[in-house]
């Protein structure tokens, strides 16, 4: 099936042929309001190269095929893909590969050595396809255009790579530098900067935080190869295309090194009968009194990916939870496990931590949580537990805890 769709031209002879997924609400464990799966056609003389693709099936690949058809019509050429570049195995970027191979069986597939068996495992019908495995330094010249390949292992899968279109200065970065946004516009300059950067921050926090050491190494490699000054555009596999590449490159460097940290604390809490909620609000007032910005996340309403986005730029994280069965109220466990898996400790960036909460006939919930946060790499400052409903004196202790955290933040 081919859906009639327009292929936006992003440069001379280069078209966006991906899919706009208006309906996606959850992805990789966090919430969003739609996304895009970016794929690109590059024309050079009488040849055509397809970079990445989309999910299979009528909803997704039909839109891709419609854009491919439109791009060829715009070029006044018969539809024929001569080369396929597959930067990543994951299905949102490779799902239509079987359809493409069936239509253009003579087109070789360029990918990393690790990607080849992964693609065949996903799509057994590709076993007879011609694969060309490439590593950093390898190139493909098609007509007057040269594609240079850069291994990007674990950014964010072992098979990942970047493709750099040298003469045009376009880096096709797959999942790196992406954002989960679904917009009619394709360029970052066409939407509000704050919206794009916030989406990029959420993408980084939820996908790339545990890969920070590898990311810094790859950024240094890009500099050493002399590519940084040659990159004019970054075309990731999700969201907007960066026409000002240094904006997102600098943001990645800042997130990876902690330069982005603000006088900001993230409070994440849940409550059974409002007591822990009272405590959270009182702690927030103590922080605010010292000029600290506070990001509040109430787990009755908020979800983990938004919490993590704010943790990325915070100097302190406070978790509040009632005690239940001598442990913790279960909603906090989801956030805790997710935060542990993101391994903030691997970044080497100092973040303060504290826990608080109320208890009835037995305590220990916040204390247990305190130990878990320490294990996750937070530098724990305090733990505050209140029996039943906090009174005025208890709320003053909460306020004082906020003041204490704020003062320690300012000494970092």
TrEMBL record:
Origin superkingdom: Archaea
Q: Which SMART domains match?
A: Lactamase_B
Output the InterPro entries linked to this UniProt entry. Answer: Flavodoxin/NO_synth, Flavoprotein-like_sf, Metallo-B-lactamas, ODP_dom, RibonucZ/Hydroxyglut_hydro, Rubredoxin-O_OxRdtase
Give GO terms: molecular function aspect only: electron transfer activity; FMN binding; metal ion binding; oxidoreductase activity
The alphabetized UniProt keywords are: Oxidoreductase
> Flavodoxin-like domain spans which residues?
265-406
Q: Which EC number(s) does UniProt give?
A: 1.-.-.-
SUPFAM superfamilies reported for this sequence: Flavoproteins, Metallo-hydrolase/oxidoreductase
Q: What protein is this chain from? A: FprA
Q: Provide the species name.
A: Methanosphaera stadtmanae (strain ATCC 43021 / DSM 3091 / JCM 11832 / MCB-3)
Provide the taxonomic classification: Archaea, Methanobacteriati, Methanobacteriota, Methanomada group, Methanobacteria
